[in-house]
Amino acid sequence: MHIEMLLDEYRQSLPVFRKLESVVKEKLRQCFNEHGIVVAALESRIKTVASLTKKLELKGYKYHQLGDITDVLGVRAVTFYNDDVDVISALMEKMFNIDWANSIDKRKTLEIDRFGYLSLHYICRVPETMYYDPDMPQLNQIRFELQMRSMLQHMWANMYHDMGYKSDVEIPVEYQRNMIRLAGMLEMADEQFSHLRKEITDYRRHVQSLVATGNFDEVPLNGDTFRSYLQLKPFRRLVEKIAGINQAEVYEDSLLPYYDVLLHMGMKTIGDVERLRRTYSEGAYQLALIQLAGTGLDIVASSVALQNICIVVILKQGFGKAGLTRLFAVLYGESDYNAQRAQRIYEQALKINLL
After folding, report:
1. Long-range Cβ contact pairs of 165-168 (< 8 A, separation 24 or more)
2. What is the pLDDT of residue 90?
3. Same domain, residue pair 245 and 104
4. Whole-angstrom Cα distance, residue 38 to residue 11?
């Protein structure tokens, strides 16, 4: 009779649980977006009648009313890195009312063979300051379980469950030993991924600091450092000087395609790129003069400065029309027009003795 009463209360409360599920997931998505947190998964489930019945048959004596059951609604945030669990938990403590007496950090309590269950479990309520529906005031009274774990922990939990955990068949000792070994490897991998992310982040900050302070020769040329260098707008003055030829407007386009060009030119450091800029800017401007003279062109791309610098370098190094054709293929893809463009620019360069 007691179980049936709780099940009846559950069925009557299902619309509230569904609304709560929707509200919680939406608030979590908003929180993650606002704080730049990328999660591997955001999952939720409401216990089925069958699942709840089984729970009540086992532990029904503990529950006097449905509100005593804290996991009818379960929500899980799966992070890519295990240290993000602490970041998210700190945010959750600000968002929700936490029932600390029933919350548990299983990372501190579980045995060595339970890597996949090293979740952080918070029992939460939605505060009225976050969300309130006068037609469903009970929504703010219902507790739900929020689990936070890493993707490797989540993967192992599913695999461990699938391989026999909680089944009626006892797993032989030799298999259990192998599972514990695998759990240890995954736990170490989880820690190392977080450690590696921190090291890479620290390296990027160091490189960005070097770029910002002008220590270009110490900075290797790669995708990240080239982006940081471009943030300094090193070609801006030359672009504006070229635009001034016809009092043209500058159209902003990306310089990132030139990263591959610079690598093909043998650039190893940002210092190499900076020397290229200083050495060949005047030649790039002279080329622009003859390109724009008499055209009346009133808009130029912001890439014109770096493109002309590359053109001047190719011509000065004696690669001629073939080198220019390859340049345009890298920038614009293979096309018959690349050779025509190379021919035209080569003839323009001849007039100002760039060869």
Report:
1. none
2. 93
3. no
4. 35
CB 211 within 8 A of CB 218: no
Span 31-56, average pLDDT: 92
The range of the structural domain enclosing residue 73 comes to 2-157
Backbone angles phi, psi at 249, to 5 degrees: -85, 145
Residue 251 and residue 141 share a domain:
no
* 273 closest CA partner among 314, 248, 306: 306
How, if at all, do strands 299-301 and 249-251 pair? parallel
Domain boundary at 121, 140, 157, which? 157
Render the burial of 173-183: b for 16+ CB within 10 Å, e for the rest.
eeeeeebeeeb
Mean per-residue pLDDT over the chain, rounded: 87
Which stretch of DSSP H or E encloses residue 249? Answer: strand 249-251
Compute the average pLDDT of residues 185-193.
81
Token code pair at residue 274? 């900076």
Tell me the per-residue pLDDT of 337-348, one tens digit each, with 9 for 90 and over: 999 999 999 888
Q: What is the mean pLDDT of residues 233-242?
A: 94
The answer on 9 and 149 residing in a single domain is: yes
pLDDT category of residue 58 using cuts at 50, 70 and 90: confident
Domain count, the chain: 2
| Beta bridge pairs of residue 311 | none
Cα angle value 83/159/31 (rounded, 5°) = 35
Residue that is last in its domain, among 115, 131, 157: 157
| pLDDT tens per residue across span 255-270 | 999 999 999 999 999 9
Question: What is the CATH classification number for the domain harbouring 26?
Answer: 3.30.460.10
Torsion-angle region of 99 (φ positive above 0: left; ψ -120 to 50: alpha; else: beta)? beta
